[in-house]
């Protein structure tokens, strides 16, 4: 067995590998770029070696530096995690030449499956179902259009060396094929150093379901059932679960069998994942094989009880599989939510910044038997930069069935507090409460279909908004109580005294505007034990009892609200900004003034905030690099014309003209690094 291994990666996966290595009594070596000098994985490892450079190209992708670090520290093996060098056959071969074990599959298997064109040919030869398409390199945009016309629309343009949603475009017409071909090639070259693309039929209403396999060097191979990964944005997974709510046992076994056939065809060993697209009739087609540990591997671990990192290390050390297929069952249900530094309200554009507050829920087994797990590689005060993938954490839950796993995930997301960086928790919470998701009726088109105009948050039902308004009023009243002396604070009902009445005036967070018809008037009394008795409206005798637990230094608020014997529990974020209270709960964002009636009556006299007019400006929607500028000052552009391309986290984002106009002034040029809302250009009326 290895005594010391090096982890050729960063972030949460590096921390995850260190955790298992420590459990196995194996020493660890971390590597890091200049940007990651103080990163969590560096602090956790027994040793750390600097690679230099800020970008991945200058650090984590430098195979010779990784090998030199092994020699320097005496590391006997390298675990590549996922991404970076994990699927580079040349890296695995170089390690073998240097007499360093690669904790992964053999180089020939990586090469065979890493090329999406060749892998489809191998899969077809091995008897694996494949998607109809053109299995071959496409040389020109004209050839791409001709092939797509023959296959029939829609089609998927995919990078041969691709993965993680990069270098992929869906096209519904010949014009979209030509544009998508060029974009996919550029993304592929930028992300993988290989600009080859191919085209295949796009399966409508598809589910993305994958099979996890384990194989050893003696030819033994098993599958660990499936993961459902259909909730995706920009072809990248954000919610995964195991098992799939769609598969029956016969389809599960058939998919597992074909995954094993494919592994045998390339003499595969280590952990690997065979990805399939599944249509509404449970027909399944091979997509690709990922010759590495998957981001979503925790959900498989939680339903099987296996530690996949441990299994990979044992296999790399020459051990035979410890489990047979008959040993592998499905125990309960697991969910994974990927927490990204991105703005779901701006089409999931990446975000950067410092985590001024980072408080994940505790990892534990709860009283009801459910489990919370959080794989993360950051801590409070860390910076999310433009150099690497914006994933912050992988929040996981387990329950005895799917509803229990969803319920635990909902609560875990409620308990996750982050400040300083835009994040996607509001969207993840919204999905976890969405009726269609809860029913299991999902496809890879879920986000496009359910949020056609983009994610704009969740609109609270009248009953929930009423409860949340009461919570805001109680918090405001509690603050007034704490500021006042105990002798003057009201502690018993006095409905003839306005001090017991509060008006919650829900307002627009940006302008302060409010609709008087939505005002919530309540009577509120704070008891000696800190709980509240509420009547709403004040003249109606209702029995509402509210208890909250709040640390004034932390925005998280735990509330138990009982109305007519029915109890509701809320774990929400609440904070005050000047004279307004802000509350967030499961995708719902509320802003309100809490005022005494005589002050609330004067609210209509208050001047509203006027937002600046930016309609004549093109503002950068995300932090990134301006890699292509297609227009010049004075040029007339038409609606729908591409103005420029901004690259963020290796993903290209085309910015489009919304109407016919003239380019008045350019404020940015190609190669510039842009922040969110940086002005790229301004417009004037067309002549």
Notable traits:
687 residues, alpha+beta, Rossmann fold, Dna Ligase, domain 1, Glycoprotein, Type 4 Pilin, nine-stranded antiparallel sheet, eight-stranded antiparallel beta barrel, 40 strands, 32% strand
Number of helices: 17
Distance between the termini: 75 Å
Radius of gyration: 28 Å
Question: In percent, how much strand structure appears in the residues?
Answer: 25-35%
Low-confidence stretches: 489-498
Largest sheet: 9 strands, antiparallel
**What coarse outline follows from CA principal-axis ratios?**
globular
What's the number of extended β-strand segments? 40
Q: State the helical fraction.
A: 25-40%
CATH class of the domain at 462-605: Alpha Beta
CATH architecture of the domain at 462-605: 2-Layer Sandwich
Arithmetic mean pLDDT: 91
Strand order of the largest sheet: 14-13-10-11-12-15-23-21-20
Q: What structural class results from the helix and strand content?
A: alpha+beta
- The CATH topology of the domain at 462-605: Glycoprotein, Type 4 Pilin
Itemize the secondary structure elements and their pairings.
Elements: E1 4-7, H1 11-23, E2 27-32, H2 40-44, E3 47-50, H3 63-73, E4 77-79, H4 89-97, E5 101-102, H5 107-114, H6 116-125, E6 133-134, H7 141-151, E7 155-163, E8 166-171, H8 174-192, E9 197-201, E10 207-215, E11 221-233, E12 236-242, H9 249-265, E13 270-278, E14 284-290, H10 297-304, H11 308-316, E15 333-340, E16 342-343, E17 349-350, E18 353-354, E19 357-359, E20 364-365, E21 371-376, E22 383-384, E23 391-399, H12 402-414, E24 417-419, H13 425-432, H14 435-439, H15 446-450, H16 462-483, E25 501-506, E26 520-526, E27 532-535, E28 544-550, E29 556-563, E30 566-577, E31 580-585, E32 588-595, H17 597-600, E33 617-619, E34 624-629, E35 636-637, E36 642-648, E37 651-656, E38 661-666, E39 673-674, E40 679-684
Parallel strand pairs: 1-2, 1-4, 2-3, 4-5
Antiparallel strand pairs: 6-9, 7-8, 7-9, 10-11, 10-13, 11-12, 12-15, 13-14, 15-23, 16-17, 18-22, 19-24, 20-21, 21-23, 25-26, 25-32, 26-27, 27-28, 28-29, 29-30, 30-31, 31-32, 33-40, 34-36, 34-39, 35-38, 36-37, 38-40
Helix pairs in contact: 4-5, 7-8, 12-13
